[in-house]
Amino acid sequence: MWANPRVLFPLSARQGLSNGTIWRDGVVYVGLDDGNVYAINSEMGTQKWGLNVGDKVSSTLAIAADGTLLIGTVGGHLFGIGP
Predict the structure, then answer these.
(1) What is the total count of domains within the chain?
(2) Which of 39, 40, 65, 80 is the residue whose CA sits 20 to 30 A from 51?
């Protein structure tokens, strides 16, 4: 895909990544096994925000048509996060 790939930004997590990450409008969203969810500016590599949903994130994050970030957990909860 790329002749000379390079790391654009690292994410150091104390827990594993439990699902696929998603990207939208220059922001990468990632959920971790420890319940933390992060939004990372994909150009700068800086964290825009982070929050803990209190349970292991168990599904690939999704973004609804209105921009709501959808997060499913092992405990059977679905969170909708908005601006």
Answers:
(1) 1
(2) 65
Q: What is the pLDDT of residues 37-71, one digit of tens each?
A: 999 998 888 899 999 999 999 888 999 999 999 99
The C-alpha atoms of residue 52 and residue 73 are separated, in whole angstroms, by 11
pTM score of the predicted model: 0.81
Cβ–Cβ under 8 Å, residues 72 and 80: no
CATH code for the domain in which residue 61 is found? 2.40.10.480
Domain of 27 in residue numbering reads as 22-81
70 belongs to a structural domain: yes
Q: Does residue 65 fall inside a structural domain?
A: yes
